[in-house]
Amino acid sequence: MLGFVTLFLSGMALAAFVVARRRKMHTNDGKLAIFLGALLPAAICFTTVGRLWYLPGTLLMVAVALLANEFWMTPQAAVSSGTSGRAWRLIAGIGSLAILLSVGLAFWKSAFGLFHAEVSVVADRVCFDVLPTDCVRCTELSNGEMLNVEDGRVRTIYLFLMLGAAFAFIASLTASRLFARIGGGVALLGLLLCLALLPGILPGLLVPVNSAHACLNLLRSLGWGWHLSAAGVVLILCAIPLATLGKPEDAGPVE
Fold first, then answer.
1. Can you tell me the distance from the alpha carbon of 243 to that of 176, in angstroms, rounded to the nearest whole number?
2. pLDDT tens-digit profile of 217-242?
3. Which residues share a beta bridge with 149?
4. Among the four 90, 199, 210, 253, which has the fewest Cβ within 10 Å?
5. In what order do the strands lie in the sheet with 135-140?
6. What does DSSP assign to residue 255?
7. Residue-level pLDDT at 221
8. Helix, strand, or coil here: 149?
9. Which segments of the chain does DSSP mark as H helices, in order?
């Protein structure tokens, strides 16, 4: 199955480069679609192939970098893209970095995870944490003993958050409102999935899940990472309407 996935992703990258070569003019959203169509397969296949992907993956990464240089770094590309929408791009970039920062900080401090709560179990206090990228940690506070359990649902939540933040960040650099919306929506879906899946990830902690008390405990126990990610999503989605405010000014004089 991983072989078929690798073939599919490799074909996607090939199609992106074929489209990039054949067409002369591309919209900014089209350029970003081509760029992501080549970048994502190049990055994902390192997890499906392993060491055999080191050479082709590196070559693809170099090609993606050259593609980005042609699309956005050359003088002609810089002139054509202009300086419009700097405010919304800055705000969206800050929002996406806030999401990525929350994920990174969770590796350092468990309180930045998606969930952090201390409960009484028998005669001991036990701390439950949901951490990147697929870890549910149970820590007995009396002796510091930890039990880490891998959960694919946690991995899915973090995958949505990181992909959404990456899409929004790249969109802020390339001034693509379409992909900024996509990135913000994907990250928002990750936050909603977290709320929906947490009762199943920690079944004994939130029972009964249909009670108001359990819902209140859920909201109170959400980690700093969830709240920081939520703030990032709000910044991304609220920044996009600002892009249309400066549009008449950036249009320039009409001859």
1. 10
2. 677 888 899 999 999 999 999 988 87
3. 136
4. 253
5. 115-121, 124-131, 135-140, 146-150
6. -
7. 82
8. strand
9. 2-22, 28-48, 54-68, 75-81, 86-108, 152-174, 177-201, 212-221, 224-239, 247-250
Asked if 166 contacts 159 with a C-beta cutoff of 8 angstroms, the reply is no
- Render pLDDT for 8-27 as a digit per residue (tens, 0 to 9): 999 999 999 998 887 667 78
Which pair of structure tokens corresponds to residue 9? 């992703």
At which residue do the structure tokens 């009762």 appear? 199
d(CA 199, CA 190): 15
How many angstroms separate the CA atoms of 137 and 148, rounded? 5
**Residue 208 pLDDT:** 46
Phi/psi region, residue 252 (left: phi>0; alpha: psi -120 to 50; beta: rest), is: left
The CB-side HSE value for 24 (13 A sphere, CA atoms) comes to 0
3-state SS, residue 146: strand
The tens digit of pLDDT for each residue in 41-84 reads 888 888 778 788 889 888 998 898 888 888 877 656 555 554 45
| pLDDT of res. 83 | 47
